[in-house]
Design a protein that fits this description.
Shape of chain A: globular
Largest sheet of chain A: 7 strands, mixed
Order of helices and strands of chain A: HHHEEHHHHEEEEEEEEEHHHHHHHHHHHH
Largest interface: A-B, 99 and 100 residues
Distance between the termini of chain A: 42 Å
Number of strands of chain A: 11
Strand content of chain A: 5-15%
Radius of gyration of chain A: 24 Å
Helix content of chain A: 55-70%
Oligomer: homodimer
Chain lengths: 609, 609
């Protein structure tokens, strides 16, 4: 059964307790958002997720979107839910107040995104894509375009899309063929076909604003000849309301593995009027701006799916009676014990739990950097935030979506045969979650972005924004760890010293791998490519280990100091310990794989496959 | 696109070249099956798979099975395909000639199963379940029942099912409620409901023979009070043809994640006449007989899906043009290079390839043991075969289905966004393959079977059937490896010495883990439970490493001796090297996880989840 209750306590832990000395805090511009206000917003968001979006998740999967006579109908209830969502101001949560946004911190915004994705991933794409599109418009469009489009898009009255992919090119956008012809009035006419356009057409908003990559007549070949255009579905009239159709039509909607309530469209542009966003031929820059924003959000989709899968699995593991506990009967009045007593079921639940808490902690860290980049008055802090975001964006996108998908699969496994039946709701998490490893750049592309762009950029400066705090933390706590064992009362016997040692060891493997890749990759880029996916995983595991070690330290001190929330902090310690026991060891496998190099990977001739 | 060509060369390698000195060979009773005859059978099987079954795989997924007025209709073409299959003698391939079977070796039978599963997993269940049911009848039923049912079932005129699960019990069969009442004529009347019955009802055969677990009136509680009954859908008339209905009805068919062309039924038995198979209250023994046969076959399903996914991914990786090779343009006449040039795509393809070749090599080994158990005249060999099969059955079931599912997911990843669209055919492999990790005992249950039953059984004798040849092989080749490096001509730079060293190290970790589990598990069974899944994976990785090291040795010698098939053996060496470089390192992670014990896994109170 799909159950979901927003993990508010853990979200508050990440926002208010963790990462407090990461150097990204104390931002004057955000001081109005007091902890009480933040918590109130999160509670309201939880209500929307639980009460409005969750009930439409399975019905949306069953009904799907339908294309009839060129019009896409979203599943029953989606329009009403979107209206509630929009009217509640949720579309505008993190947007600039200049355009009608509420300017809330990214920490709050990303936690809200997590809730929306947990409760209804398909729904999340409609406001989500709009947010990506507004980012590009804010950053690159003319004032005139901003005035005309941003208020309507920020409010959610109009939605947005990102039209990149064409049938013959997705990853390699240099090959795209959609063309834009200059008009006398400074506008352009666009013609071409785009595929895989999320929210490309639907019945939720009165207008849809497409951001379209296309070539100008004089464009250089490849990615250096791509420009970005704003193309509305309906051309706005002088009063700003939607006017005549603009030659954008839906050729088809895709029949997908999942995410069925999200309309994935094939769009044809036929002499559609558009306006340039940014500089001619420099569209990739604006595209990457919106893409990077989206990539972090797609990572959060993975976390959202992982959390929903975890909760649904826990529900079943407590409810389903099969077998007896190996340590003695636990439910003597029933015919069997709930399956949560079995170690292998625990293994699956704890794995999901560790993944989710780890990803959420990392989300909090990256969100604080996003806020610091935007609002900090200290240029040094802003730079460090920018470096950190650049480095972590591919890690968050790929790691979170991989782990979220694994969690979805573990949830099915906890349900056993019942999990394979649609009625259980959990196989939907697998089908929905699968796409997050692919879109906005496959996870393989994320890994290449990390080793090929993010590591060498700025002479390796990006890396320092991450390595520096980790090594500082290890140094600061090595001595301390020696003498302050975790409190005895904790049944899990979590020990801080071995955690720091394990973190140090994994961090050492990461440093060594970085050097290896830099050295080998310089001579032979295929060596960097061969190491990329394992390197990204290794970095993610270390980042998560760092977050868990910090969490354990906070929990230890809280418990030692006498807290009323003994249960919460003990569970935090146990989950951290589980992470170090059972998840971090993956770092060794990744390290060995990186070390082995490209030889056996690249040896076979293509014909031999 | 779903493409499939049976990997006949590798199958011949496994049957005729690998494992030749495993002590399971030279079986007189199978001497009529010469290599030429075996190869001819495999070639015919390939034709059936490629030409008859593959074309129905996607249409079957789209159409699914339909229940109308109590009758289940399989998708278009299935009936005709089944008739061809049956008339070709494929249902009877490995069955005893006494009942009309062809008595072919299991090596041939399992390779044929792989082909059927690659081309159409849904289809495979109809003959597959029948085969499981005949195993139980052959082993436990009265001569009268055998005479009446086996010829029709072996020929495939009638099909069979295994009716175990009820809504409230799957893993914990002790709770089942279906009851059998004794009749004066020695038969029984059964009443109850069963769920998840594969091929429970369909239009492919004129009768369906259900093997049903139920309780007699005087049955002790739990699993010690379960008996097995044969319950035909239609009661045979005196002339052996199907007569009147027997009170078996379909309440529903399940809407599943995949495997949509296989009818998964909820069956009601209403005073249905049945006959006891085996001894009263000893039904679990017969059930396990058929279950164990099925478990190896389900493992082969995982391999089948993995191979189909691999081939479909290779097809796309050679066809799809995106980006340029990092080592220089490879396809200068085209707008981009095929994506098979990219290291991360290679990583995925080589991973699938190594999984498939490794699983196929293990399948060959286990199949040889199955043949030896059945036909060897040497009681010592038979015993060793029985021990080995007992040990490897849970490993084959869980490991192969895990890896096959991973391959299916990698295939989707190779396709990128196109893989998420139903049209590509590859997301079907994910949806179809997911169930194999669950049915016939979840993979967690397999792991518990391994550590809880198979390790301690016969004072650990099962283990010797595996450990002994592996340690002998290491000893025999350590010195040799030192002085005979792989031939220089092999680009992959595969070196035999490091392979043997890596095998020795992983085998050491397995031995140490075995001792740890035996020791800790004796005091606390939850410790064994907490280690089970990682231990199974570790054992599987070592078994596969052993197979790859042997394969590499054979390939090395063939290449050194001058073979016409240089390409095949070089590729074998490269794949072996890739396995040692990139897959076997998982053993370290599994070892560390086992070592960490149950503490952090079991510490949280159920209420804290």
């Amino acid at each position: 059964m799909q159950v979901y209750e927003a993990p508010l306590r853990d979200m508050r832990f990440v926002i208010h307790e963790l990462h407090q000395d990461d150097g990204f805090g104390n931002i004057e511009a955000l001081s109005e958002f007091t902890p009480d206000l933040v918590d109130a917003v999160l509670e309201e968001a939880a209500k929307v997720a639980q009460e409005v979006l969750l009930p439409l998740n399975r019905s949306g999967d069953i009904e799907g979107c339908v294309l009839e006579n060129g019009v896409v109908r979203t599943p029953g209830g989606f329009k009403e839910a979107y209206d509630l969502f929009r009217e509640g101001g949720w579309c505008a949560l993190a947007s600039d107040p200049e355009w009608g946004g509420q300017g809330l911190p990214e920490t709050v915004n990303k936690m809200t995104e997590e809730m929306i994705c947990s409760s209804n991933l398909s729904f999340s794409l409609y406001p989500g894509l709009t947010h990506g599109a507004t980012t590009a418009i804010e950053g690159y469009a003319s004032d005139e375009l901003k005035q005309a489009y941003l208020p309507k898009m920020v409010s959610g009255d109009w939605s947005g899309t990102m039209c990149l992919t064409e049938p013959h090119c997705g990853t390699d956008l240099g090959m795209l063929r959609t063309r834009a012809v200059t008009q006398d009035d400074g506008s352009y006419k666009l013609t071409g076909s785009k595929i895989f356009i999320s929210a490309g057409e639907h019945d939720l908003t009165e207008n849809i604003i497409h951001l379209v990559l296309a070539r100008l007549p004089d464009a250089p070949e490849g990615v250096k000849g791509i420009s970005l255009f704003l193309v509305p579905k309906y051309l706005p009239k002088d009063d700003g309301t939607p006017g005549p159709s603009n030659g954008v039509s839906v050729a088809a909607i895709e029949h997908k593995m999942g995410l069925k309530a999200s309309a994935t469209c094939q769009l044809n542009f036929d002499d559609s009027i558009g306006w340039l966003v940014g500089t001619p031929h420099k569209g990739m820059e604006a595209m990457f701006k919106m893409m990077n924003t989206e990539r972090v959000s797609v990572g959060v989709q993975g976390l959202g799916i992982g959390e929903a899968a975890y909760q649904s699995a826990v529900y079943y593991a407590k409810d389903r009676l099969q077998g007896r506990s190996l340590s003695g009967v636990k439910n003597s009045s029933g015919p069997a014990d709930p399956i949560i007593v079995h170690p292998d079921v625990r293994r699956m639940l704890m794995t999901m739990r560790a993944y989710n808490e780890g990803c959420r902690a990392m989300t909090g860290w990256v969100s604080r950097a996003l806020d610091a980049e935007r609002y900090s008055t200290d240029p040094e802090v802003r730079q460090r935030a920018t470096d950190f975001i650049a480095l972590m964006t591919p890690v968050v996108k790929a790691l979170f979506t991989d782990l979220g998908y694994e969690s979805a699969n573990l949830a099915v496994q906890v349900y056993g045969g019942h999990g394979y039946i649609a009625e259980s709701g959990v196989e939907q998490y697998v089908r929905d979650g699968r796409i997050a490893m692919i879109y906005e750049g496959t996870n393989g592309i994320q890994a290449l972005d990390l080793v090929g762009r993010k590591l060498p950029a700025n002479m390796g400066r990006n890396l320092r924004s991450f390595f520096h705090p980790v090594s500082q933390f290890i140094e600061a706590n090595k001595a301390d760890a020696q003498f302050k064992p975790m409190i005895e009362a904790n049944k899990s016997d979590a020990q801080f010293k071995p955690m720091i040692e394990a973190l140090e060891k994994a961090f050492g493997a990461l440093q060594l791998s970085t050097a290896t890749i830099a050295q080998k990759g310089m001579k032979d880029p295929e060596e960097a490519g061969a190491a990329a996916t394992d390197y990204l995983r290794l970095m993610g595991l270390v980042a998560m280990a760092y977050c868990f070690a910090q969490s354990a330290l906070i929990a230890r001190d809280k418990l030692a100091g006498g807290t009323e929330e003994v249960g919460f902090y003990k569970a935090k310690l146990t989950t951290a310990q589980f992470y170090f026991d059972r998840i971090l060891p993956q770092a060794t496998t990744a390290f060995l794989a990186i070390k082995s190099g490209k030889a056996s990977m690249m040896a076979l001739d293509a014909a031999a496959f």
